[in-house]
TrEMBL record:
Name assigned to this protein: Transcriptional regulatory protein FMG_0893
Protein family: Belongs to the TACO1 family.
Organism: Hirondellea gigas
GO cellular component assignments: mitochondrion
Domain TACO1/YebC-like N-terminal per the UniProt entry, residue ranges: 69-138
Domain TACO1/YebC-like second and third: 145-304
């Protein structure tokens, strides 16, 4: 008993020298540790202890796996965006190559090249990539050319498919696979679908100059002075149509008026567009998306409103 009394006296002396806040914190910490990890005395045997440690290890492993799964989801989303971005850059690169094959390497003398480069800048394509594509195309002896495929579907739908490839048979084969069992097929009368469309220069600009909103009447006056053929008010934008050969000059004049040009490109527009119901539009959009996923396909033009 004296021995235990001595221990008690020494413990009391030590405890008196410890601040109350630290003492409470220490006791609380010991309490939580004892709750989390039982002392060895509570285990019936060594197997019991091993099972406890194994269970806790499994929980920690599951937590890490959950974190990995979250990163996997983020990675998949990022990957899908990167794939879409890569596909867009591939289409722009194809347009640059096609314009260089058809004309001068000087954008001022080559409307198609000027518009392709403008599209590349609008979509934040790296300048190094643009220069590499331009240099490679100028040095190489590529056999790629522009081709058009003509397809018809149900309800009077016509599709003009623009290819840029060195193997048109391969491109056509991929398109036929994409439209299989959709009601869309290649027309046997060459030129019958091409005649449904006409090539135009299309310029889309913001419907304001500075802080001033532009009315349709103002836009029509500017269109006449810029030598555009048609103008249409589309919500927050104004669309100008012009002769394809005058696209660059019309765009330059509109910029001089103060317009913020959002896009300018050569398009094939239907002479007499048709209308589809909502289901028909959704089905056609899915078909066009599959076709445009093909590497050799530059663009698909439908004859719809």
């Amino acid at each position: 008993l004296p021995r235990f009394t001595g221990i008690s006296i020494r413990m009391n002396t030590c405890l008196k020298s410890i601040p109350l806040s630290r003492l409470i914190l220490s006791v609380s910490a010991v309490h939580h540790v004892r709750k989390a990890v039982p002392p060895a005395a509570v285990f019936c045997n060594q197997d019991h202890a091993n099972n406890f440690l194994s269970a806790n290890s499994t929980q920690r492993l599951q937590c890490r796996q959950a974190g990995s799964s979250k990163w996997s989801n983020i990675k998949d989303i990022k990957l899908s965006k990167d794939v879409a971005r890569g596909a867009l850059f591939s289409k722009i690169a194809m347009r640059i190559k096609m314009s260089l094959k058809d004309g001068s390497a000087n954008p001022a003398a080559n409307v198609k090249l000027a518009e392709a480069l403008e599209s590349a800048r609008k979509h934040n394509m790296p300048k190094a990539s643009i220069n590499a594509i331009t240099e490679k195309c100028q040095k190489s002896m590529e056999n790629a050319k522009e081709y058009f495929l003509e397809y018809r579907g149900l309800d009077g739908v016509c599709l003009l498919i623009q290819l840029y490839t060195d193997n048109p048979k391969r491109g056509k084969g991929f398109v036929n696979v994409a439209v299989k069992r959709t009601g869309v097929s290649e027309t046997k009368n060459t030129g019958s679908v091409r005649h449904v469309f006409e090539e135009k220069g299309l310029i889309l600009a913001a419907a304001k100059i500075g802080n001033k909103k532009i009315s349709l009447a103002d836009a029509e006056e500017h269109a006449i002075e810029a030598e555009a053929e048609e103008v249409e008010h589309l919500g927050d934008n104004i669309q100008f149509l012009c002769d394809p050969k005058e696209l660059h000059s019309v765009k330059t004049r509109l910029q001089e008026f103060g317009y913020d040009i959002e896009s300018s490109e050569l398009e094939f527009l239907p002479r007499s567009p048709i209308e589809l119901d909502e289901n028909g539009m959704q089905a056609l959009a899915a078909i066009i998306e599959r076709i445009e996923d093909i590497e050799d396909v530059l663009k698909v033009y439908p004859n719809i409103v």
